[in-house]
């Protein structure tokens, strides 16, 4: 951001913005956590409870998977990909040299948060506010993304690293069966987390001037 120093009335504002800046994508993760499972659970529950949704529809559904349960997500992804290889849809070499090592790196982490949207729960409100009917699904996804971002940022703030993945629809059926989840829960993203094994990669920033305007200052 700009080089001008700004003083906030509340030091929590500075802390929030520091946490926003510190959140990064970490791919090299260990099967360890510097915080308790209860602390992780509290972060995820806080997102489910307090992240806003359009018309307070509360459409996000979240599953926290730790240790062996987390590994099952990536076993499901590996086995789904093996199915694509067997069907001739993915070259065996690409799978063995690229996809499988990547999926095994996710598996080597400590946990995965699965983020779902329950679009079916919007049926009544779509009827009630017909004029907005086509807006509710994208709003639900936007709200879900807010939860993903909050959990990612808070985990990083507690010394965990995380990366955001999208293996839907490949893994949807396996996930739903494994944890007996309602069919109306549509998987959007998987946040993989664990103690960081190395620093994140370099990140470049496009000029702020091209991406931000202020008027009336
Ligand atoms: C909506 C969204 C979708 C993303 N999807 C993926 C993904 O499927 N796989 C992945 O490895 N990273 C994914 N990322 C991570 C981005 O590549 C990453 O956030 C971006 O390069 C900036 O790096 P940083 O997270 O270190 O700030 C996604 C990020 C966002 C915000």
TrEMBL record:
Nitroreductase domain mapped to chain residues: 20-194
GO molecular function, one term: oxidoreductase activity
Protein name: Nitroreductase domain-containing protein
Signal peptide stretch: none
Subcellular location: Cytoplasm; Nucleus
UniProt KW keywords: Cytoplasm, Nucleus, Oxidoreductase
Pfam families: Nitroreductase (PF00881)
């Amino acid at each position: 951001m700009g080089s001008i120093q700004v003083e906030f009335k509340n030091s929590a504002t500075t802390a929030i913005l520091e946490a926003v800046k510190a959140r990064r994508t970490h791919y090299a993760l260990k099967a360890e956590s510097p915080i308790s499972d209860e602390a992780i659970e509290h972060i995820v529950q806080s997102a489910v409870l307090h992240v806003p949704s359009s018309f307070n529809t509360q459409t996000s559904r979240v599953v926290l998977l730790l240790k062996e349960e987390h590994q099952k997500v990536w076993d499901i992804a590996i086995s789904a990909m093996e199915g694509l290889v067997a069907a001739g849809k993915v070259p065996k070499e690409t799978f063995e040299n690229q996809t499988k090592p990547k999926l095994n790196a996710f598996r080597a982490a400590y946990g995965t948060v699965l983020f779902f949207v329950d679009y079916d729960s919007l049926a009544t409100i779509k009827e009630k506010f017909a004029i907005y009917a086509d807006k509710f699904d994208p709003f639900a996804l936007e709200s879900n993304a807010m939860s993903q971002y909050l959990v990612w940022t808070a985990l990083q703030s507690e010394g965990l690293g995380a990366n955001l993945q999208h293996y839907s629809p490949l893994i949807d059926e396996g996930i739903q069966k494994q944890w007996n989840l309602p069919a109306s829960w549509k998987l959007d993203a998987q946040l993989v987390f664990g103690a960081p094994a190395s620093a994140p990669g370099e990140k470049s920033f496009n000029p702020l001037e091209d991406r931000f305007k202020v008027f009336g200052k």
